[in-house]
Amino acid sequence: MRHPILVLVHGTAALVALTGLARTLWQGLEEPGAALAFGVLVAVGELARWRGTEGRESAPLGAAGALAYALFGVNGGAPTQHGTAQAVAVVVAAALAGCVPHVARGQGPTADHLARRVLTVAFAAVCFQPLCSRGALREWSGPAYVLLVVALLVLTVLCDAVLAAVLARSRTGWPLSPLLRDELRALLGIGSAVCATGVVMSLAVAVVGLWALPVFSLPLLLTQLSFRRYAGVRATYRQTIASLARATEIAGYTPAGHARRVAALSRAVGRELGLSGPELTVLEYAALMHDIGQLSLVDPVPAGATAVLPAEEQRRIALLGGAVVRQTGVDAEVAVVVERQADPYRDQPVSARIVRAVNAYEEKTRDAGPGGPLRALEELRLGTARDYQPEVVESLARVLLNQRGSAAAPWGA
Length: 413
Known about the structure:
two-stranded antiparallel ribbon, disordered C terminus, 4 strands
């Protein structure tokens, strides 16, 4: 069953889009040349859409063009007459047209992406277009007009960030605060370029006309290209870390897939505990490389199960692993998590507490049969006096319960 928030947001966006399209078809298209120019810009932006880091859908040119059309009040010195409904209708039609190739390749945008685009454009147009139609902006000129446009655009993107966080919360059940923090942090990257381009487009078209659109689109396209290259570097970096993590599996020190399973479950627990995006990245990398210290052992630990070793031996392996991670050039924060995972949990950073608990759970449940998960959680709970943080263990239990559904109900008891 779909979450009520998703139904509400998608239903509202659909109603706004249909209202804008119907009213525009009924009244006719005002200033078709400007509508076509902005529509082409938004469609091209959607065509160039890509999936950035953390799986975030990114269409900066489309977003900037849509916001600029919502704040489009003057064209070459002459006031415009298109209004709020047409602003929504043009953006909806252009966004749908730009999505066709993605849908054909099986990579169509989610309903969340389109709903956010519709609602943010409608919000900006509702705030701005009535002022234009009543002539209230004629009293604003120079810096005052610029400040008005910037303020409306900033307010719009902040609302979009809140909407994105709420939608993600509804779909995943993750805490709202870190999701909102990640969305706001994203505004400092490509989001700031979108805001700046939207403002410049709106102001430039007001002075020189529609020829300003292709001119001021180029910097944002170059910025998007740089971000795509950065995302490619990040992906290669992660693949390199995953390859290093597999060294213990290839050498026979740990079972196949152990590091990958620990990393995936650790990331889920970190999300459930409210870690931010950068913190989750450090957590994932540390979980992938948490056993790399075993490569220094002469005799492998049976099945790679370090959780059953004496505390001093666990600490020695962890320190060796941290030293190896530092030599690979990986972020120093990852090395700290690896080398601290055998310390008492009160002395550990949060990421190390998560990796230690998840690794112990994975080792205890491996080949343990149907009752293994329940016994493993009980053992972890018994070890909360020193080895495992109680909040991490309970978060792990909630994650497992969510992953396994109602069949695992006794686990969370």
